[in-house]
Design brief:
With about 150 residues, the protein is α/β, with parallel strands linked by helices. It has helices spanning about 1-15, 30-35, 55-70, 85-90, 120-140, and strands at about 25, 40-50, 75-80, 100-105, 110. The chain has a single domain (about 20-140), classed as Glutaredoxin. Helix content is about 45%, strand content about 20%. Strands 1-3-2-4-5 form a 5-stranded mixed β-sheet.
């Protein structure tokens, strides 16, 4: 009986224990607070559809990169918005295809148009965090992109 309880406990902890995602789920309720209002870090935000094949291919790459950034203590965070859960937010940013990626820093935003490979995204974020962030800070007239519900 004791062995059964131990095995059941082990099975539940291995199979049932969900790992916390390093990718932040963004939605109307938390988007402005996390990406603009007082957060000094940088964001890459993916607008996705749960049924999109390209989005499903990107998911493990995006998760791996988000976890590496989190583990390294980076101020860059990766987030994602489900198009079908937040159509107004997606429409506000002109999202028409999936996945659509944006890089945001210091009130500035640009659409990522590069490859969706791990290497390309990592290289882009490394350059963005250093060079682009410094350039964006120098522009005091940077618009703040906030979604107004």
């Amino acid at each position: 009986m004791l062995w059964t309880a131990i095995l059941c406990s082990l099975f539940i902890s291995v199979v049932g224990g969900e790992q916390q995602s390093a990718v932040v789920e963004l939605h109307e309720g938390n988007y402005n607070h996390l990406t603009s209002n007082g957060y000094s870090g940088h964001w890459m935000v993916e607008f996705y559809s749960p049924n999109c094949g390209h989005c499903k291919t990107l998911e493990p790459i995006y998760e791996k990169l988000a976890q590496e950034l989190k583990d390294a203590g980076s101020t860059t965070r990766l987030g994602r918005v489900n198009f079908f859960d937040d159509k107004r937010l997606s429409k506000f940013y002109g999202v028409e295809r999936f996945p659509t990626l944006f890089y945001m820093a210091n009130g500035e935003m640009e659409r990522y148009e590069g490859e969706r490979s791990y290497e390309a995204l990592k290289a882009y974020l490394e350059v963005s965090d250093i060079a682009k962030a410094q350039l964006l800070v120098m522009d005091s007239n940077s618009p703040i992109y906030c979604f107004e519900p």
